Every structure is written in structure tokens, then in C-alpha cells.
User: Fold this.
Amino acid sequence: MKIAMVDPSLFTGRYDDSLCAAMGAAGEDVALLGRPVRPTDAFIPQHYRYVPRFFRRSEAVRGRLGEGRVFRLLKAAEYGWTSALGKTEDLARADVLHFQWLPLAPADRLLLRRLRRRVALVHTVHNVDAYHADAGFQGRGYRALLDLFDALIVHGDTTREALVAQGVSVDRIHVTAHPPMRLAPAMPDDLASVPDPMRPRVLFFGTIRPYKGVDLLIEACLSLWQGGHDFELVLAGKPFMDIAPLMEGVRRAGFGDRLICDLGFLREQRLDAHMAKADIIVFPYRHIDSSGAFLSALHHGKAMVTSDAGMFATLPEAVAIRFPAGNAPALAQALLPLLQSPAIRQARGGQAHAYGEDMGDWKDMALATIDIYRKAMAART
Assistant:
């Protein structure tokens, strides 16, 4: 079977790499189609081909333009032209086109309409609200795109039920478990570049967006610091919101020495180093379906605190301490026993690690995904 995995902006490069490698190892002809790779992209294709098909022009000037409004407009224009008028012969030669993410819904609609009669189309719905209400025009019309696919893949019953409630036919929805992922491991230089903890360390890592609740985490930490609890908070990742007022609030309260910020697009190895040096990893999301960040952290065996949004609500109680999404005081209370007791942190971390070991692997997911492709192709005949 000839499979083309499509993630134009490489929103989930490590996920794409893991699945493509496993399907290639199972004997399929697999290509991953994305943008030109960046220094922060750590995956090395194995058992599949990588094709930098999208955003070649805008990526070529990214270093000069930066990532501000002009660059984003250029990317949108390039993708719109590619979708509406660009060549599609290479895409149509595949047996299956599997879209992981749809980066610009109005343009994606044009591309999918050009392809739908020529090749089986599959899409992984990572989140029912694709961009968590943060994207504006980017995500406008996303729901309508789902009707253009022969099959939809989700990673849990919560997402499946949400799609059914939106009128998506249950026959087109397939549930496959999301296996744990491993980022590129930290090298000695990466570990040396991340300061050693001076006190118990709480970590938030990944892109910083409104739905991820960093403001809630800082509010919770401020209340704990003001209550006399001694620990440090690390924020590691690229902000897609203005966090300067949050950091200024910490400094004004007199706790600036306990906030460590490592901001920007970080290499996987550096993120891995941050996880290695953390005591507690926090996912204070207001809403989420599934979280690749959480699944990539399990093997570190660190104590986890999560909201009860999406997949987190289904976790066994021993795996993570949960709190009601959006509730900063409850988040503070969830953190408290972990901050107070190294023994509790160690026990909770062990449970998280064991859970990750029992979750299945990418070989299982690859075989399930290949079966979904076959069903999608058969439904077209």
C-alpha cells in the first residue's frame, strides 16, 4: 500500500515520525509530507521517506522575516495558492492520504475537494476543537472538512462521542489508542544547559497557549509561595500568547528567583533535559482531547498533575493527581502533597512510568491504522 502522511506544518512531528516508521517497518510504502525541516526537528526518518513539500518559499525567508505577522501572512498565502492551484499529481498517486493536521481550513477545503474523488482520504482528529478557539480564521470551517474524509481516527471515546454529537457518522469514526512517545534523548550538553534544581521543581513544557492554562498554574504557584512553600517553577517552550504580565506579576510578588523561563522553539533534546531535571510535571489545560506532551513524559517517571479535561479524566487515579479544569485553587491543592513529600513524588512517578509501559506500542497502532486504510479504500469501491 502506498501511504502519504500529510502534516504540512509538522504540528506533531514526533507523532508523525513514530507512526510512519512503524507502518514502514510493517512493510508499507510510506512518505511523510511536511515543511522543510528546522534545527528543532529531531526526528530521523526510518522505514519511510520525508518529503518537504509544503511552505518551501515561506520557510526559505523565515530566518530573515522572523515569525511575526508578515511571515504568517506569507505562509497563509503560499498554502492557499498550493491548495487551490498547485499540482496534486504526487498526492493522487498514493492509495491513501492521511492528514494529521489541517493548518488553514479555508485552503484545506479547496485541496480536499480536488483530491477526494481520486484517492482515499483519512484524517486524525487530535482535538474536536482543532485549535482550541485560539486560531480565528485558521480554524474557521474545520467541522465541515470532516465530511470530506472517508475515515476519521480519534484517540478516545470522548472525542468519538463529541464528533457523533456534531453529526459525524459513527461508521466513519475509528478509535485507536495513542501510544506513549519518546522525544530525542538529552545529551550531556543539553543536561548541562538546563540549571540543576535548587528546590523541588515544577515543570510546564511545550507551546504556551491560552487553552493550556499557564495563567492558572502561575496563580496556583503564587498562592503556594505566599503560603510559605519553597519550590521553583520552570516554563519551557514557545509562547503563542503574551506572558509578560504573568511573569511581571511573579516578580512584583517577590518570587522572581523561583520562576525559570526557557522560552522559544526548543529542541526535543532540551525539552527532554527539562523533564529529566523536574520533580513534578503539570498539565493545567482548560480543554484537550489527547495530549502528546503528557504521553511523551511518562517514561521519565515523574509525578504528574493534570486537569480533568479530555483524556486526563480517564487516567487511573494513581497515574496523576487531577483537579477540575480551570480551577487554580484546586490546582494548588493538587500540587501541595507532592511539594511536601519526596516519597509521594517518587511513588506517583513510579505509577506514571508503569502506566506508560502498559499502554501499548506504535507497532500495534500501525497495524490498526493500516486496517483502517483498507476499510476506507474498500468503502470507496
Q: What stands out?
A: The first strand starts at residue 2 and ends at 6. Residues 89 and 322 are 48 Å apart (CA to CA). The longest helix spans residues 362-379. The chain has a mean pLDDT of 93.
